[in-house]
Each structure stands twice: as structure tokens, then as C-alpha cells.
Amino acid sequence: MHHTWRWFGPRDPVSVDEMLQAGVRGVVSALHHVPTGEVWSLDEIKKRQAEIAMMSDGSPSGLGWDVVESLPVSEAIKTQSGAWRDHTQNWITSMRHLREAGIEVICYNFMPVLDWTRTDLAWRRPNGARCMRFDLADFAAFDIHILARPGAAEDFPEPVRDEAARRFAQMSEDRKRALAANVVCGLPGAAETLSMEDVRDLLSSYAPVNDQVLRRNFHAFLEQVAPVAQDIGVRLCCHPDDPPFGLLGLPRIMSTEADYAERMGSVDLPANGITLCSGSLGARGDNDLPGMMRRMGSRVHFLHLRNVRRDKDTVPCSFFEDEHLGGQTDMVALVAEIVAEEARRARTGREDAQIPMRPDHGQDILDDIGRSGGQPGYPAIGRLKGLAELRGVEAALTRQLS
Description:
By secondary structure, the protein is an alpha/beta fold. The protein is built from 14 helices and twelve strands. It has helices at residues 16-22, 42-52, 75-79, 84-100, 136-146, 158-170, 173-183, 196-205, 211-232, 257-266, 278-281, 289-296, 331-348, 380-401, and strands at residues 2-6, 26-29, 65-69, 105-108, 120-124, 130-134, 235-238, 272-277, 300-305, 307-310, 319-322, 356-359. The strands form two sheets. The chain has an eight-stranded parallel β-barrel, surrounded by five helices. It has a four-stranded antiparallel beta sheet with strand order 5-6-11-10. Helix 4 runs parallel beside helix 9 (211-232). The protein is globular and about 60 Å long.
């Protein structure tokens, strides 16, 4: 695997120097300051590349911007409303600029409204570590009683509704505000901060967009962008829903292996590929991560390796971000399939034999705890620990094959 590290730019509390010391060989980044729907200029792309290439003392880092995460797809594109045609052309122009700058891998997602959802961003573990958690009853309390979405109660089983009502009745005003802020935190690094009214307005914009319509709109987007990507040598990789089940009455169309098979088959080009995120997909007990890698590995262009632990295997369910080798996904089996896929690619002469991987998320441990300014789920030491564990598993499995 090509070991990378997600970096949110010069304001990220983890510096280029520290990424380099962690032992990574590449960087995953994005231009979060550019409003969604606008063009990423070549100048801005090169500016970010220059920032990655230099250490704090001015010496070269040797690191490059290897993967874009994310080139955002606007809500207008997803709903095919407003300026969606202009936004699609701007997305294609940005992709061309990225390729001109030498970047070949672009991660994106097609999740409506929110790019990820958690109810707790610093849930305390028994050993004192902190992690992100999605609690179904807390989310129901938010949806039914704080957001007050019409029809929300019907989306939850009666025991969950009852527990949500009990918890809400005991919540202080500070707890209500904190829960709402956690739920709408959205994509790490995003410039937007959504208010309750913003969320209600966005949900209203999806009123005519059911599962079938969102699938149709996604296919239309792929029909425009994937052939261009194939032509210019860009590998697109769609990130799964996080969590991989319905929320807020919105459609979810990237949650299972069947979803991915349908999306890949809709525009059957190698450039139309997959971000295999073991944490997002692992929040469903019916997703077989090693099997997905084995069956769809040729189209996997990017890897997010993290682990979660579910409270049960029903869909939906509560879960938390566990240690990289400690959750319910068999990480050793998954990495074994990745190593096997890379060996197959090398035998056939594929230029992308090494798949970019980043240690996704991580628990706050040691000096991570209380360190301000970072994105939720992206601590320095917690990710370093995960990278070390994953690197050890990979080294052992690679030795067995040699």
C-alpha cells in the first residue's frame, strides 16, 4: 500500500514535518476554502502542492499531493436543481486542472446534506482515550425533538423512540446544543457550519428526491465525468455513506456491495472506481469487507482503513470508532486481500499496483487529548498508532507472499 496522511492545509495542527516523521509517503488533501460548486484553479492547486512540498525550515519534504479528498459534489448536482449543469462543468474543469498538476486520484461522495454523522465527537473509552460515536437513541432525540423533522418518529422502532424521549427529557440546554452541533458537524475541513434552519431548508430541497431519483442523478453525473476521467488518466473513487443507512428521511445509495456494483456497472469504466472505507461500510454487520475487496478489488482506487464496533448487527445501529485492529472488521483478513490485489496488479503491469491508503480516523490518546484546532477523528498520535499497526500487518503478510 502507498501510505498517505490526510492533511487539512496550513491551519492543520499536524504539520508537514510531523506527517513526514510519521513515515507516510504521500498526502491526501483538498481546497476546503473554495466554495462548493466553484472551479479549483490551477494556481490554488499548485499553491497547496507547494505547501505540502516544504518543511517548516524551508527544506523539501519529499511529499506530494497524491489524493484529493474531497472534490465536493454540490447539493444542486445531487438534486439536479438550480445551477447543477454549471456545477458539473466546474467539477470537470477542476478535475482537468488537478490532472494538469499531476494528481490522478480523486475521492468524492454522493451523500445528501451531511457527509458524515456522529452524535459524540469525544466519547470516553475505559482506558481514557476519546473517540467518535454514533448513538441511535441520541440521534433519534435530535431528529424527533430538536430538529423536529415531520414524520421523524416513524423512522425509528418504538423502543428507540421511547429511549430518545426519555433522554431528551433529561437533557440540559447545553447538551441539546452540543448534540445538534455534533450531528451537523459534517465533513471534516468543510467551511460551512449548518444551523437547524439550514438543515431544514436542505432537507426540504430533497423532498422530491427519493432513492430512485438520487440513483438516476448519480448515474447522470457519472456519465458526464467518468469518460473525461478515463480519457485524461484520472481515477475517481466514490466514498460510501457514513453511516451506511438512512438518516433524516434522506436516500442512501452507497451503503452496500450491491450499491457499489450498480454504480460501477452504470458507467463501466476503470476510472469509475471505489474508495473502500472499512469504517463506514463496517457500520453494517451485513457488509463483508474482505469479500468486497476480493470481489471488487480491481476498481478500488483508494483505501480508508479504520474499524468500528457496533452494539448490535441490526440496521441501523449504534457504533463507535474502535482501535484499528480492535473493531469488528477482520483487519488482518482485509489487508491480506489488499496485498493479494496489489500482487495481481503488479503481475499484469498495472501502473497503480500500489493502492493509496490512509489510516482513517483514530482515537485521541496521550497528547491528542485536549489538543485544540484539529478536525474530529483526526488526532496525530491516534492515527500514528493506527498507521503503525496497519504497517505491521502489511509487512507480515507481504513477507508471507515473498
